[in-house]
Fold this protein.
Amino acid sequence: MAHIRKALTLDRKYPDNTRPTPCAALSRAYQSFCRFFEMLEVNEYFDGNVKSIAFHNGSLPTTAGVMAPGEYTFATSQFETITVVSGKMTVKLPGSDDWVSFEPFNTFTVDANQSFDLKIEIDTAYICTYE
């Protein structure tokens, strides 16, 4: 709490246009903590059975997520590349009547503005990039 009070008293030392943000005025550890929460976005779908953390991997927006067993339908707004990290996804891609299984390090893609179906039998982790 003393760090916060100290940061707030810095207002008197700087003209309005050069005053650092509260995060910039605090300790290096607190600055890292602030950057961590600014760069990550947590998403939850299907009553908490699918959770992901969104971040930017340096070249593309990315999510890393986990899915509990169940059946899910996802809609895309961008081109997506999905890689299974652990577990197994059984996928029915747009325009197909066939279900295809993807295991760790297998990748599939889905065009923008499409929907696809998933069957998850065991807890499954994935990485998804968006273009």
In short: The radius of gyration is 21 Å. Residues 41-130 form a domain with the Jelly Rolls fold (CATH 2.60.120.10).
